[in-house]
Fold this sequence. Notes:
The protein has 202 residues and is α+β, with helices and mostly antiparallel strands. It contains eight helices and eight strands. A hairpin with a 2-residue loop joins β2 (39-46) and β3. It is globular, with a radius of gyration of 18 Å.
Amino acid sequence: LVFERATLMQQTTGKGKMCAVSLSAADAQPTVERFGGRIVVSCYNGPRHIVVSGEADALAACVDELQRAHPGCHAQMLPVNYVFHSPLLDFAVPQLTATLRSFYHAQRGRPGITMYSTVTGAAVGPDDLTPEYWGSQIRRPVRFHDAVRAALADGCHAMVEVAPNPVLCNYIRAIAEDAGLADVLVQPTLMRKVRDRVSIAN
């Protein structure tokens, strides 16, 4: 799955950009829609944290409009050479789905741990994790905000970000705060420029 996905992603190298924007999706959407599909909201990371993606020139113009319309809006271009979860990957969905069907085996039994999907923004089970699911994941927006909200609503109030450096912890804290929850523990594992043993111990 990882190999096939990466191979398709490489075909979009240099064709677009991604930019993190400190706005709600509702505030950004009217401007995004004016670009007629050349720009999309590709990640819903938090109450006021999204990523917009698309063709480089259109993205620059869109971000400029957003910042003029919303003074104080922070925008940061992401250091990537291809565009996740955007129309530029429409071609990849059927190809990846077809490849995955060739080695897919339905899972049996009930999982011991609930998985919250950033594709659907809700809990999913083995029957949901089909080739079609994974094929569409490359194109559909990341619904991290919805997935975390769903987990919080189900009583998951301790969350660990497993990564070489924390990126999502602040989003999780913002989502919990927006939900009116003050008792949520959010913990990173490793941190850049901190020895691994020290990070884990803390």
